[in-house]
TrEMBL record:
Residues 83-163 form the DUF4283 domain. PANTHER family: DUF4283 DOMAIN-CONTAINING PROTEIN, GLYCINE-RICH CELL WALL STRUCTURAL PROTEIN 1.8-LIKE. This is DUF4283 domain-containing protein. Residues 1-57 are annotated as: Disordered.
Length: 237
């Protein structure tokens, strides 16, 4: 076997442009090219600028169009009906993932029926129950906590948007101690509850005067407003 040497590399004809000269510079590194203050090679009269001009890529005379879809009252009632037994839950002081939240809810709300959980984003969840009994327990029998962190539970609101929800509220029990028994009246207690927030429930032992040490009302309280610490009923504080 005869092994021949490879042919010599092809050499292009010499031209004035590729003749070596003493004035040629060595190629710049990539870093040097990026940090160079020389004008761009494709735009000899323009320097690179990192301050974009406002609206430089915005088409002129463009009109924004907002499409509005109207839903009649009958259809609104129809699409909202499945969410009637639902509460909105938010954890304060800790961000809970979907799996962890579901695990904790099953622990603190052992439901007789079924329930579905939807992650609304921004630490909000909606819990939809199949049984009214489970729904009322979640709404009224708080306060609820997950590993020491308070769970705000509120009624589901139509058109609730977690991105624009600025009013934080919670369902809490309001206790009025040493209330004279003549004020254990449903209408008076409703007024008291609605002055503190939105009345959700009056403890049955309160309305039938079975408990005389204090009145107990469940209200939805706006956490963004100052808390009322006392109430005057007629002349009783």
């Amino acid at each position: 076997m005869i092994i021949s040497e490879p042919p010599p590399p092809h050499t292009a004809p010499s031209s004035p442009n590729n003749l070596p000269t003493s004035s040629q510079k060595s190629p710049k590194s990539y870093l040097a090219t990026l940090t160079s203050k020389q004008p761009h090679q494709n735009s000899p009269n323009t320097k690179i600028s990192f301050n974009p001009q406002p609206n430089s890529h915005t088409p002129q005379n463009v009109t924004s169009i907002i499409l509005k879809i109207n839903i009649d009252a009958q259809n609104l009632k129809h699409i909202r009906a499945p969410w009637r037994l639902s509460v909105i839950v938010k954890c304060y002081g800790k961000t809970l993932g979907m799996m962890y939240f579901s695990h904790k809810i099953k622990q603190i709300w052992p439901a007789k029926g079924t329930f579905n959980i939807v992650d609304l984003g921004d630490d909000y969840f909606i819990v939809k129950f199949s049984l009214e009994e489970d729904f009322l327990k979640a709404l009224h029998e708080g306060p609820w906590f997950a590993n020491g962190f308070f769970l705000s539970v509120r009624l589901r609101e139509p058109n609730f948007n977690p991105k624009t929800a600025v009013t934080q509220s919670a369902a809490i029990w309001l206790r009025i101690p040493c209330l004279p028994v003549e004020y254990y009246d449903a209408n008076i207690l409703k007024d008291v509850g609605n002055h503190h927030g939105t009345l959700l429930r009056i403890d049955t032992k309160t309305t039938n005067s079975g408990r005389g040490r204090f009145a107990r009302l469940c209200i939805q309280l706006d956490l963004g407003k100052p808390v009322t610490t006392s109430v005057i009923i007629d002349t009783h504080l």
